[in-house]
Amino acid sequence: MKYVVKGTTMEIKLPRSIGYKGYSVECTYKPADEEDKYWLSMWLKRSDIDDKFKIDSQEIDTQLISGTKENIRNNICSIVEYACRSGFFTEYIQRFKYTYECFAKGNEILESECLDDKD
Q1: In angstroms, what CA-CA distances link 20 with 10, 45, 54, 119?
Q2: Chain centroid to CA 86: how far?
Q3: Which residue of 24, 32, 93, 103 could cross-link 37, Cys pair, CB 3.0 to 4.6 Å?
Q4: How many domains does the chain have?
């Protein structure tokens, strides 16, 4: 999987071929107290919106994963790849879309009311 490294955060593009066009997952990892373990948090992003949707009521997931400094990025890619194949992100993408559709509708209503107040 293709990714961009941003310190201890990786942005991994989700595959278009399975319906995730324009989406990526931002994965932040930090060492845990246990040896060869890391805390991994994931956020869903859409390329046309400058906002993140944290998975699992805004955060997709935070979990303790195995890894070393040398292989943690490959392990994260494997987790994201498995999540893609299993359809794990589908619910979160639907929730993301719904949230922004609600925002757009609400914004239309408020703008309409503001225009009515000016008339």
Answers
A1: 17, 11, 16, 43
A2: 16
A3: 32
A4: 1
Q: CA-CA distance, 10 to 95, in Å (whole number)? A: 22
Predicted TM-score (pTM) of this structure = 0.78
| Encoded tokens for 44 | 């869903």
Long-range CB pairs of 81-86, under 8 A, 24+ apart, other chains included: 81/1, 84/14, 84/15, 84/18, 84/20, 85/18
State both tokens at 80: 């994201």
Q: What is the pLDDT of residues 79-114, one digit of tens each?
A: 999 999 999 999 888 888 888 889 889 888 888 887
Residue carrying the six token digits 């992003």 = 45
